[in-house]
Design a protein that fits this description.
The protein has 229 residues and is an alpha/beta fold. The chain is 41% helix and 18% strand. The strands form two sheets. It has a five-stranded mixed sheet with strand order 3-2-1-4-5. Strands 6-7 form a two-stranded antiparallel ribbon. The N and C termini lie far apart (56 Å).
Amino acid sequence: MPSFIEEELLEAQGYRLIAGVDEAGRGALAGPVVAAAVILPRDLNVPWLAEVDDSKQLTPAKRELLFQRIHETAVAIGIGEIPHDLVDKKGIVVATRLAMKQAIDQLSPPAESLLIDYMRLPEVRLPQKGITNGDSLCLSIACASIIAKVARDRMMVVFDRVYPGYGLARHKGYGTSEHFACLSRLGPCPIHRQSFRPVREIMQGLWLVRGQSPCGDNHVLGWGEKGRQ
């Protein structure tokens, strides 16, 4: 379970405002990559801390509950979002770093040092440590993973209403069998990451005819198999 060991090591060096940083949506085929930065109070001792874990290990209901508890307790929270088109333009690694920097820049009061899941951010001039599997080892990072995951999931529920038929509210843009089936039937919608190989390959195997697409483009009727009349 996550602990405060890393935070305590930094506190022993004189740091007080220590932010945990993590992302959500890095591996998704659609939608933004979202990052969160969370500064927890020193000497925090509340019952719900025992329930905090890597967001991927928690049920949606548990994430929502902890999302609320973290917001009620944290010294500061920042959230960064990089949309799908910038993911395509800059690549997922750069996009993830940009989202993390956005989240860190939003913190008030600002962080004095950072604990980051897996990555380091050379563009951020703060003492920092990248921790492999940090969301399962470090409480600040685990809390950031929950904030990022819930914030992104809520965005994908909204996108599901804008682009119906893909099941975005259920799989949140990740590569599930349902998502692949919808992509093969409908073709990508405007928030799909066209630089990602599964989406790109489906696009290459589909053709457009004039009319109205399932995504609402006025000049497209729909998607069909390549070569099909």
